[in-house]
Each structure stands twice: as structure tokens, then as C-alpha cells.
Design brief:
This protein is an alpha+beta fold. It has one domain. It has four helices and ten strands, in the order ββαββββαβββαβα. The strands form three sheets. It has a four-stranded antiparallel sheet, with helices on one face. β8 (about 95) and β9 (about 100) form a beta hairpin. The longest helix is centred in the last third of the chain and has 13 residues, at about 125-140.
Length: about 160
């Protein structure tokens, strides 16, 4: 699956995932080489609609070949379920090189940024947000849009206020 990430500064990155993308770290290697902070929107190929936009989230997780926007608790749940972190007696532990290690919050953040299929969202002004989403919608890198998913933002949400 191919995705294009739109950042708050106007830049973009392309991510190409191989078969079995998601928690398989071999398939997220390209994700390790791109910027993970400042994400406003992600456009991804979709067999039903041509492409789909995921936006307006605190964090974006790559799960079963799809980007999902989540809040902090969704992030923690994803990391725990997939074995990246453990809420143990020592509050938090991370899995590094086959060993569970006690970690403080900054260690967990650095570990997530380096090793997990997670991107970090960024809030911006309404006008900047609308402009970035408009660019994402008008970008034809993934061809034409054939419809909208039930939980996808539609173009009416992209326009700046009067």
C-alpha cells in the first residue's frame, strides 16, 4: 500500500508498505526513514474508493494495511496489544532487542518514534488545516476518487471559514 503524508509545514513524504504491512517491523522500514512529527493528513490508496484521507488526529497508527487516527489512549492500546510496550509494575517498559526495559516517558517517546508504525499529528490553524486538506484532495497521485468511506471527512470540511 502506498501513502502520502502531508505535514504542517507544507512538505510531503511517500510511504510504500509491502505485503503484510502493519506490525511487521520489516514492512515498516520505510516509515523509519521519514519525518514522523507534524502530520496533518495522510492520503492512502484504497481499493473501494481509489484513495482515502485520514486527518485531524493526535496520532496515526498503521494497522492491517490502513492508517487509523487515534488519541493518546488509542496509541497506548495499539502499542500494548502489539507488544511494543508493557504497562508493568514499574509503570512502563519498552521491548528493546528482545528484552523488556524500564523506561521514563521520554524513553517511550523516543522508542515509539524510532521503532513503531506511528506518526504524530500536529494541530494548526483552521485555515492552514483546510489548505493542507485541499491540497491532499486535489493531489491526483493516486488517481481519481470514486467515493467516500463512511467515517472519512468529505470536501465540505476542507473549506476555510467565511
Amino acid at each position: 500500500m502506498k501513502s502520502k503524508v502531508y505535514y504542517d509545514d507544507g512538505s510531503t513524504s511517500i510511504i510504500q508498505f509491502g505485503p503484510g504491512a502493519g506490525i511487521n517491523l520489516d514492512s515498516v522500514t520505510p516509515l523509519r526513514s521519514i519525518r514522523k512529527l507534524g502530520v496533518v493528513a495522510i492520503v492512502s490508496q484504497n481499493p473501494d474508493t481509489g484513495w482515502v484521507i485520514t486527518s485531524g488526529a493526535d496520532y496515526y497508527i498503521q494497522n492491517n494495511g490502513h492508517w487509523i487516527g487515534v488519541d493518546f489512549f488509542g496509541l497506548i492500546d495499539f502499542l500494548r496489544i502489539n507488544g511494543y510496550i508493557d504497562w508493568g509494575i514499574g509503570w512502563k517498559r519498552i521491548h528493546v532487542d528482545g528484552t523488556w526495559v524500564n523506561a521514563d516517558l521520554m524513553d517511550v517517546y523516543a522508542y515509539i518514534e524510532k521503532s513503531c508504525p506511528v506518526l504524530f499529528g500536529r494541530w494548526t490553524t483552521h485555515n492552514e488545516f483546510a489548505g493542507i486538506l485541499q491540497r491532499a484532495e486535489n493531489d491526483r497521485e493516486f488517481g481519481n476518487k470514486n467515493g467516500w468511506l463512511r467515517d472519512e471527512r468529505t470536501p465540505k470540511h476542507f473549506s476555510p471559514p467565511p
